[in-house]
């Protein structure tokens, strides 16, 4: 079985060493805090506000299921913002903030994360910078969040995510198996005695935790082929450190290995998909190599321009890869209307937080870090950011299937062995009956209860 537990633990140690009832108010609020609003409200309106706040708190204290009522308040707050009733939204957000916590149960923690995002969106509406549209402020905040990708806390959160959830491991394990099977199929069809060398083009390699299991599987072959990885990323230091770790690991296996960093622009700031397409011309293609292109939890960021993304996929197709692996969240967080995006995200992350509740102890620090830092960042981007700078643009598999087919790709069925291997991963490391695997359109879907969460597919 392709596993990465020991590598991930070793890399994590090394890395750490380096290192919130809609009101019937027609007057628009001034760009001040709630105290400023109340100062300008009519006396009758002040009494109405107070009465509604007392009613909300009374219902909350008398509710037999406070989490359900808080979730209703969360939706009401989002709808108030959507309808520009910022006064009502501010009051509700304050109540949500005082009745949720990152230390409670999964529902309370979820409400806490979404309330923080709504509160930020509300502040950006109520206190815009002079002569700056609120949409641009949201975008600027989103960009600043993404500039923190090099921050130690965010990197540590990613490593914790890889350890305590099956999401990344499932995606990477299944992609690796698809790559190995495509390599074997290609060598078999060409009836080669000496196997082709292998070239992996990995979009956004980050810390490289996907590749040691594949390297181990390749090194065990007789004779082992040469493995070359072209790794893209937006931080040259991370790329180099990843290359050094993988090179040392390859040396310990006796595997011939080469690593090429390919620095890409930050597409969410000043660059476009065109820049990525241009950078692909720097990828060296050799005639005696099997090319595998790995797109795990990456391409959704490029949905800012669907036509250009399809052009990029056609460019990849023109490179004649033997296999392209694709993994994405099974959700539609790319809806242009805020309230639709909010409701979709609330349902999706409810399943995520419930899965963490079921598989980790109540006092897990790793879970809190993952929920508040990694998923908190995603929720903030989906809820707060608007315009071109929003990055978390997840779409469901049907959208990706259509785009891949338009670009000329056809789906490769993932094997029964890959399915049994993914099931074994869940059984050994995440022994909860809540996780489920389904095969649809020759692709794998990992879900929690009845909510699909991630899809992995293979293309040629």
What does this structure look like?
The protein is an alpha/beta fold and 460 residues long. The protein has two domains: 20-149 and 338-388, no CATH class; 165-331 and 394-410, Rossmann fold. 55% of the residues lie in helices and 13% in strands. It has 17 helices and nine strands. It has helices spanning 5-17, 34-40, 43-62, 66-82, 86-98, 106-126, 134-147, 152-164, 167-190, 211-219, 236-253, 273-279, 306-318, 338-359, 365-384, 397-406, 416-429; strands at residues 197-202, 227-233, 257-263, 289-296, 323-329, 411-412, 435-440, 443-448, 451-459. Strands 1, 2, 3, 4, 5, 6, 7, 8 and 9 form a nine-stranded mixed sheet that branches. The radius of gyration is 24 Å and the shape is globular. The two termini are 24 Å apart.
**Number of DSSP-assigned strands:** 9
Q: What is the distance, rounded to the nearest whole angstrom, between the alpha carbons of the first and last residues?
A: 24 Å
Query: Low-confidence stretches at least 5 residues in length (pLDDT < 50)?
Result: 15-50, 131-149
Give the radius of gyration.
Answer: 24 Å
Structural key phrases:
about 450 residues, Rossmann fold, 9 strands, alpha/beta, globular
């Amino acid at each position: 079985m392709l596993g990465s537990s020991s590598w991930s633990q070793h890399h994590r140690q090394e890395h750490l060493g380096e290192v919130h009832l809609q009101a019937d108010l027609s007057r628009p609020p001034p760009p001040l805090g709630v105290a400023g609003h109340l100062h300008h409200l009519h006396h009758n309106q002040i009494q109405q506000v107070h009465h509604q706040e007392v009613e909300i708190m009374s219902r909350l204290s008398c509710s037999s299921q406070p989490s359900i009522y808080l979730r209703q308040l969360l939706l009401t707050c989002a709808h108030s913002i959507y309808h520009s009733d910022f006064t009502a939204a501010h009051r509700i957000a304050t109540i949500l903030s005082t009745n949720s916590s990152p230390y409670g149960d999964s529902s309370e923690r979820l409400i806490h994360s979404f309330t923080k995002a709504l509160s930020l969106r509300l502040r950006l509406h109520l206190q815009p910078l002079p002569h700056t549209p609120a949409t641009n402020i949201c975008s600027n905040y989103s960009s600043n969040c993404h500039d923190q990708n090099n921050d130690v806390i965010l990197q540590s959160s990613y490593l914790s995510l890889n350890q305590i959830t099956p999401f990344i491991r499932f995606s990477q394990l299944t992609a690796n198996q698809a790559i190995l099977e495509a390599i074997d199929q290609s060598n078999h069809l060409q009836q080669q005695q000496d196997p082709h060398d292998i070239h992996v083009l990995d979009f956004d390699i980050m810390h490289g935790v996907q590749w040691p299991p594949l390297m181990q599987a390749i090194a065990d072959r007789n004779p082992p082929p040469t493995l070359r990885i072209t790794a893209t990323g937006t931080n040259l230091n991370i790329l180099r450190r990843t290359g050094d770790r993988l090179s040392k690991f390859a040396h310990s296996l006796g595997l011939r290995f080469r690593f090429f960093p390919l620095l890409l622009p930050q597409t969410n700031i000043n660059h476009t998909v065109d820049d990525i397409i241009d950078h692909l011309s720097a990828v060296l293609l050799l005639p005696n190599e099997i090319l595998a292109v790995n797109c795990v939890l990456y391409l959704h960021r490029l949905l800012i321009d669907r036509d250009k993304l399809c052009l990029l996929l056609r460019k990849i197709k023109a490179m004649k890869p033997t296999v392209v692996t694709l993994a994405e969240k099974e959700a539609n967080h790319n809806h242009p209307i805020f309230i639709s995006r909010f409701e979709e995200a609330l349902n999706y992350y409810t399943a995520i937080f419930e899965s963490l509740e079921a598989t980790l102890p109540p006092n897990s620090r790793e879970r809190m870090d993952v929920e508040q830092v990694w998923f908190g960042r995603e929720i903030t981007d989906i809820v707060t950011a608007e315009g071109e700078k929003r990055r978390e643009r997840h779409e469901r598999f049907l959208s990706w299937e259509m785009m891949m087919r338009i670009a000329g790709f056809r789906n490769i069925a993932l094997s029964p062995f890959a399915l049994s291997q993914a099931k074994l991963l869940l059984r050994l490391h995440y022994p909860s009956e809540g996780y489920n695997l389904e095969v649809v359109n020759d692709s794998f879907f990992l879900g929690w209860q009845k909510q699909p969460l991630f899809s992995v597919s293979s293309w040629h």
